[in-house]
Amino acid sequence: MLIVCVPLLVLGGAKLAGITIPVPEWERDYVLRFPIxxxxxxxxxxxxxxxxGPEDETRPLIVLDAGHGGRDPGAVSRLRxxxxxxxxxxxxxxxxxxxxxxxxxxxxxxxxTRDSDRLVPLAYRPEIARLLNADLFLSIHxxxxxxxxxxxxxxxxxxxxxxxxxxxxxxxxxxxxxxxxNGIIVEGQSEVVSDILVELSQQRIQEEAxxxxxxxxxxxxxxxxxxxxxxxxxxxAVLRAPDVPGVLFESGFVTNEEDLARLITQDGRxxxxxxxxxxxxxxxxxxxxx
Length: 290
Fold this sequence. Notes:
By secondary structure, the chain is an alpha/beta fold. The protein has a single domain (65-288), classed as Zn-dependent exopeptidases (Aminopeptidase, 3-Layer(aba) Sandwich), CATH 3.40.630.40. The protein has helices at residues 2-17, 87-105, 124-131, 166-176, 178-181, 191-197, 203-220, 257-263, 266-288, and strands at residues 41-42, 61-66, 76-78, 84-86, 109-112, 136-143, 154-159, 184-185, 226-234, 246-253. The strands form 3 sheets. A 6-stranded mixed beta sheet has the order 5-2-6-10-7-9, with helices on both faces. A two-stranded parallel ribbon has the order 1-8. The termini are far apart.
């Protein structure tokens, strides 16, 4: 009764006294608005990148893929001074470092899925390698372990229908969702085709990818820090080109201070680039002798 009567008495008294009591109205300044999701955008048509290096088309071609980019930062960490560090920047810096080494050494052609801070749809990345008739595809990333700052070390992923571990499965799920989370729509994509590509009907291609993975582990032994489970496999969309051997290289964890310290310095990235460049050259040398 008090809840009902008191407001009525107040309003009645105010009316008798000629007092106007303001009430809330829609669209006033105190109404706060904020976006709840990034707007979706239709991806621009795929454009093939320039092929760098020798003009001789018999020379082997590797496509280097710097993960994430543009509105997709990938994993995010923060330095002690508060500066944010993004996976997309680490991946691009390491990719450019590797490109420069390969071109300086000669004999290998190189193409990049991106050479600047821009978003390349996930579906385009392996397609670029396929359309360029590449001999090898290498996608470069840096992982995050969330609050587990003690998790560290590089990992090497190859394609598989069955993930090698629960952690590998979670990683693949996160990476494969990049386009959806960033509102990227690639028109004309077929889920049926996507399912066919991951069937791994090209056994030889997967064997070659596994060989390249083992070479990275061999050349990096004692040079760079690897995760205890360095070689992994998962159903990664970026590795789904059915006719190009592909490997995803996780250079380390941005959430680990030691890994991050190596990845944000040119000398640290140089060690990774040296290992990858050697593995690439040994792989191509083996292929040419078969």
